[in-house]
Amino acid sequence: MIGAVLAALALFFGLWWMLVTGGDEAPWLPAGLAASVVLLVALSAREVVMRRAWTRYLLENGINEHSGERKRSSYSAGKSQSSSVLSAALRAIQKQSIEADASGAHPDLHLEVFHLCNDYLTSAEDALRTGATNEKSVAIRAGQERVRALQKHHMLTWARDTTVLLTREAQQRARTSDKIETANRALDSLDSALKNYPDDPELNESALAIKEYIASVKVAHWVELAERSAFKGHFKRAIDRYKDALFYLNRETVNDEVRKAGEERIRREIEALRAKLKSPGEGSNEPETNGGGRTPE
Q1: 260 phi/psi in degrees, rounded to 5
Q2: Exposed, middle or buried: residue 289 (CB in 10 Å: 0-12, 13-18, 19+)?
Q3: Considering the domain boundaries, does residue 271 fall inside one?
Q4: How many CA atoms lie within 13 A of 185 on its CB side?
Q5: Distance (Å, whole) CA 210 – CA 169
Q6: Which pLDDT belongs to residue 254?
Q7: Model confidence over 82-119: pLDDT tens digits?
Q8: How far apart are CA 39 and CA 46, in angstroms?
Q9: Are 248 and 225 spatial neighbours (Cβ–Cβ below 8 Å)?
Q10: HEC letters along 152-220
Q11: DSSP code of 74?
Q12: Cα–Cα distance for residue pair 37/8, rounded to 1 Å
């Protein structure tokens, strides 16, 4: 907070000086607004960090501390304290769940809630193993069910939102290698979610869609290179590059219909180029060619 105050003051005086130099009639107003925004952002960030830290403290240290107190006090008092710690942690998780679900929230907030749910479930299992009463056990198990539902919701939401963001980013990239790298990051996010929920249909469909996208990028890259070579009259090179496109099409495409349609189109182009090579005077200035199966440039 001291750093935020100093940054706000520096911003205030810096903007104030620039506006005074520029002849602004009320330089303190925009400078004050900018400094206030910095302080508000810092306060909001501090609140979020403190809430997460408190929840983690309850989950990681609360149960252990109360276990030590239980050795020094009665058995029933210790069980009551453990239950109260879990109840407080559950309320904190539910509050952070609402914040993560808020419109415009970053996907990483969902991942943070998922990890907090994981910590809660571990602590709840420890509390049950210590021998809670039937009444307390029922309450703890009910809390576990609610947390498991939240855990799955936030993991699936994180995977979905992260995949959407990375897919959009991949589509905006200019280079083929950058497109593939970004799409693979999206696939890694889905794989992380699938380790926890391998039978979820939405996750499996999204993973297949990303794999199809990566395959289409590689095939489109080699088809474009082949078309350029054919346009320049380098028919042998164009054929080699169409073969590269076939290699990635057959190796990585998941959808059979898409693969068959693409393969048919590419083979027609190859046959057309071979016919041109057989024509007199065609392809006489061919450069050296390289074989297929290369990594996209």
Answers
A1: -65, -40
A2: middle
A3: yes
A4: 14
A5: 13
A6: 64
A7: 677 888 888 888 888 898 888 777 888 898 889 889 88
A8: 10
A9: no
A10: HHHHHHHHHHHHHHHHHHHHHCCCHHHHHHHHHHHHHHHHHHHHHCCCCHHHHHHHHHHHHHHHHHHHH
A11: -
A12: 8
Question: What's the whole-number average pLDDT of the chain?
Answer: 79
Q: Could you tell me the CA-to-CA distances from 63 to 55, 69, 85, 123 in Å, in that order?
A: 12, 10, 7, 7
Domain region containing 249: 219-278
Structure tokens at 163: 């995949």
Domain count, the chain: 1
Each residue's pLDDT tens digit, 190-200:
998 999 899 89
Return the closest-CA partner of residue 183 out of 211, 160, 159, 220: 211
55: its two tokens = 């929840």
**CA–CA separation, 219 and 247 (whole Å):** 8
CA 84 to each of CA 78, 140, 255: distance values in angstroms, whole numbers, following the listed order: 10, 10, 53
Provide the token pair at 37: 């925004």
pTM confidence score? 0.61
E strand map for the chain? none
57 inside domain = no
Q: Is residue 45 part of a domain?
A: no
- Rounded to an integer, the average pLDDT of 138-161 is 90
| Nearest one of 229, 161, 227 to 190, comparing CA atoms | 161
As a residue count, the chain comes to 297
Residue 240 lies in a domain: yes
Q: Which region, left, alpha or beta, applies to residue 233 given φ > 0 means left and ψ of -120 to 50 means alpha?
A: left
pLDDT score for 15: 80
